[in-house]
């Protein structure tokens, strides 16, 4: 089953220069698709298009067999609920004036009338927060703290907890380990893999780090200058059929 399908997507910021150039990709239920490429290649622009932050100039995004371009307001709200994101900088992603528990509750309170959660239970706000913190391997006491009282790795776990709190179908992970130290990076990748196995979500994992993508993702797409040059199964990374640019990335992998 396909969760999301991107067909011939185009996005330009300057005339004659496409940041995203005729990109087509699909992500299946429960799959991790890695999108790898150098900084400035268009990865984050593609993510913003998927999240609806950027208006596309051409092509389509298909969700639930319907293009978002002609989706109803209700369908767009359903899409926003089911496509969550985790960004590179967890400090910027968390409101410094809110306690962790309030940040964790925000998505639920936005969509509570439409939710039918399978894995999390909302018997009380406190119990819900504690369950989310436990799921991302954080002590429940952190719920009463502010973001500045947490380490970078802890804050990123909080943003992951917030993203999974309403059990989305897809999480867009935009360089989620880039701002962390090596030990925290490995721990976050292991957590993401465990959560996917438990909750059955799909990931679009965007990174310039081929090693991280290879660890987490079953399938990998390689992007350069706004174009997808190569898409392959993880086990086929060393095949001779790989694009020359992919081989360059592998040489420093």
From TrEMBL:
Residues 4-250 form the ABC transporter domain. SMART domains: AAA. GO terms for molecular function: ATP binding; ATP hydrolysis activity. InterPro entries: AAA+_ATPase (IPR003593), ABC_transp_ATP-bind (IPR050319), ABC_transporter-like_ATP-bd (IPR003439), ABC_transporter-like_CS (IPR017871), P-loop_NTPase (IPR027417). GO terms for biological process: transmembrane transport. Keywords: ATP-binding, Nucleotide-binding, Transport. Belongs to the ABC transporter superfamily. This is Peptide/nickel transport system ATP-binding protein. It comes from Terribacillus halophilus. The lineage of its organism: Bacteria, Bacillati, Bacillota, Bacilli, Bacillales.
